Amino acid sequence: MTQATKHFRKRDAILSYLRSTDVHPSADMVYAHLKPEIPDLSLGTVYRNLSMFRQQGTIASVGTVNGVERFDGNTMPHVHFICTDCSAVIDMPQLQVPENMTRSAECQLGGRVAGCSLTFTGQCRECIRNIKGGETA
Amino acid sequence: MTQATKHFRKRDAILSYLRSTDVHPSADMVYAHLKPEIPDLSLGTVYRNLSMFRQQGTIASVGTVNGVERFDGNTMPHVHFICTDCSAVIDMPQLQVPENMTRSAECQLGGRVAGCSLTFTGQCRECIRNIKGGETA
DNA sequence: ATGACTGCAAAGACTTTGCATCTTT
DNA sequence: AAAGATGCAAAGTCTTTGCAGTCAT
């Protein structure tokens, strides 16, 4: 039993972390977060498991931010904001894509719509504060 | 005069192509398209000019599809569809993000929203047809 | 001459993959 | 023994960048 757990310890840790955080981490961020508690974790394993989870639909890809893919443990469709200054990916739980848009898209396309993603970009509160606070400091 | 034109010939060609097509090409696609008519064009020049145009806001990035960035000569915000089979990026001119969503996002975020992108994913008409036509053929 | 644009190739960043090893059944 | 998971490092892909050469002013 505990042995089985051990066998999947890394895989489980990766998925757990994704599901526990809202930072929408990259492979490298997952690695950096777990490395201290799992010293023999390798980056390749993180990539392998993330790819697998994504392919299975267990996790979702938020897309590529600054050349780096970001992941989301929450596979329910929802809206994101991406800060162009600090690359933060932030959930916007109060917004959602109007139901009828997906249907409209399917009609217009003549294809099959499987998903959609709405992403706002700009500067997050933190970054605006930092600029105003002390740009020259 | 014609000399000046010559000096910017490649830059102009890159921008013209982006504005003339709706395939939302990658750097490599731009290169492949222009190479026949501009034999001494180099991929580095395409990357350099695309980066510059994007930074200026002269063109827009549609995002990364299959690890490759795709560009759009149309900088007016509009909706896209991305085919997960053939990686085609297709405009959905009849749809648009509700005006009030951007304002809502800004309120909710407490930051500054500069842009937004709505992208549907799935299988385009072509790919569905091909599957039905002769998957095993 | 000076500044701008480019070709070419090297470098860089991110991701995938092959192989040997170790674990679980 | 067979199948699965992983570390490690090499390989792969896409993109950026340094340098020298060319062109326009």
Descriptive report:
The structure is a homodimer of 137-residue chains. Chain A is α+β, with helices and mostly antiparallel strands. Chain A contains 6 helices and 5 strands, in the order ααααββββαβα. The mean pLDDT of chain A is 93. Chain A has helices at residues 2-7, 9-20, 27-34, 43-56, 99-109, 125-134; strands spanning 60-65, 68-72, 79-83, 89-92, 112-123. Chain A is flat. In chain A, the strands form 2 sheets. Chain A has a 3-stranded mixed beta sheet. In chain A, strands 1-2 form a two-stranded antiparallel ribbon. In chain A, α2 (9-20) packs across α3, α2 (9-20) crosses α4 (43-56) and α3 crosses α4. Chain A has 2 domains: 1-73, Winged helix-like DNA-binding domain superfamily/Winged helix DNA-binding domain (Arc Repressor Mutant, subunit A), CATH 1.10.10.10; 76-137, Ferric-uptake regulator, C-terminal dimerisarion domain (Dna Ligase, domain 1). The A-B interface holds A 63-64, 67, 69, 79, 81, 83-84, 90, 92, 94-95, 97-98, 101-102, 104-106, 108-125, 127-128 and B 63-64, 67, 69, 79, 81, 83-84, 90, 92, 94-95, 97-98, 101-102, 104-106, 108-125, 127-128. β5 (112-123) of chain A pairs antiparallel with β5 of chain B, so a sheet runs across the interface.
Segments of chain A where pLDDT lies below 50 for 5+ residues? Answer: none
Strand percentage of chain A: 15-25%
The neighbouring-strand order within the major sheet of chain A is: 4-3-5
Which H/E pattern describes the elements of chain A? HHHHEEEEHEH
User: If you consult CATH, what is the topology of the largest domain in chain A?
Assistant: Arc Repressor Mutant, subunit A
Going by CATH, what is the homologous superfamily of the largest domain in chain A? Winged helix-like DNA-binding domain superfamily/Winged helix DNA-binding domain
Oligomer: homodimer
State the shape of chain A.
Answer: flat
